[in-house]
What we know:
Elements: H1 3-18, H2 20-23, E1 53-59, H3 64-76, E2 79-87, E3 105-110, H4 115-123, E4 130-133, E5 139-140, H5 142-155, E6 159-167, E7 173-176, E8 185-186, E9 206-208, H6 209-212, H7 226-238, E10 240-251, H8 265-278, H9 282-302, H10 306-318, H11 325-333
Parallel strand pairs: 1-2, 1-4, 2-3, 6-10
Antiparallel strand pairs: 4-9, 5-10, 6-7, 6-9, 8-10
Amino acid sequence: MGALGAGLAARRAVLFLDTWEWRSRHVRGKDSLPVMATSPDSPRIDRAGLHRFDAVVATYNAPPERLARTVRSALASGASRVLIIDDGSVVPADATTLESGRGRVEIARQENAGPASARNKGIDRVEASLVVFVDDDDELVPDGVQEMAGLLSRLGTGGAVGARIHAWPNGRVESRPVPPEWANAALPHPSHVLRPIGLFGASGCMVRRDVLTAGIRFDPGLRLGEDRDFLRRVAAQGGLAVCSSVVVRVSMHEGGANLSSPSHYARRIRDHLVLLDRWSDDVAMAHHREATRWLINASAKAGVDRASWEALIGASRARGWPVPLKARVRYALG
């Protein structure tokens, strides 16, 4: 076995010992990438060949066991510390319920201000050279996160995203692979993060701390677009790697629990219009046009309120984009 093979074997042995329970329930990442040699300023790799990072978990009223699963997945994936930011939960998160942390879990609390504000508070506490964000109902995939870190290091980008799995309460699991033309490469243009596909969420993304020191933060004024806005800034500052391996298992919820559900379309429209004005280069506008058309059709079907509907239609027409006739008829008929 060569030096590279031995290093990979050591890394996987550590992951196996730390994630036996996790692996019994989840899908492993694939298409492994070798960990390349790094410069002194590159993200730190420990003796076992693991890329180390701080994990930031924004939480609000999460059941203790659910939050514990998220923490375990972060530690198994290589987190040196897990920074939990409690966004004003009725019952505050309690580190004593997170036994797997072994002193590596820190909790800070704030008045309820939304996930963007909570993540920003976590960023201010990051000490590692890398940070990974994960929602309190999602779980990181250990091998995938390590492969994503290796790709980021090899390409020298400021951040990275990877393939995802969407898991529903009824047991249905959907894969969200990366576009083949972007796989294991740097995103060709920062505004491609606005492409309306399920890839550019905050949960599971990785960012270098030296990029964040430039002042990049989540916009607290956005609730359904803050992740893409944040990643657009990261990509512009240092580039964004796209890893083909699955890096996060995203929990989907029935009804209105997910912010992307129809009950939140009015807020989604408001944030979409903010991004339309904020990012207006040619690449961004091509993706905005596609996203706007989808949102018009979805809003007509959901029966969004009149003010939101008119704002969305007005924005489309102001840019010379046609409004689908079927959507207009559907909304008019109620």
